């Protein structure tokens, strides 16, 4: 359906019948990442206007889930995984393995299309960085962040997330 294929069009502008037809016609892939790692990444990229990570987290918590930036908004509220049946959920940290599988299932040559990933190094670096940043937060901030991302932590297997505790 060519009328659906415009970059500017958001799903919400269509009626339910058209949305359902569109979703049946696409392969749906959801990329997910530990919410705490998303926060760290956003802070490191300078999206946080605060001077410290703790102040940045406080700003995020104070903004509330409805008024928050899409860069740290809970994934469940952005991607609606309870309403949309995704064909694949790709976890950050397993990109090479999972994307290769998705490409093969789509009938594409996985090896020639994928860039070189350093998942193991990235995973180790983010684990270390997460622990360092987490230690800078107050107990109240840790609890509020766990509550803020409760649905993400329930919907996706972030077993090693510091917010799961």
From TrEMBL:
Keywords: Carbohydrate metabolism, Glycoprotein, Golgi apparatus, Membrane, Signal-anchor, Transferase, Transmembrane, Transmembrane helix. It is an enzyme of class 2 (transferase). The keyword Phosphoprotein does not apply. It comes from the Eukaryota. It is a single-pass type II membrane protein. Its EC number is 2.8.2.-. One of its GO terms (biological process) is carbohydrate biosynthetic process. It is found in: Golgi apparatus membrane. This is Carbohydrate sulfotransferase.
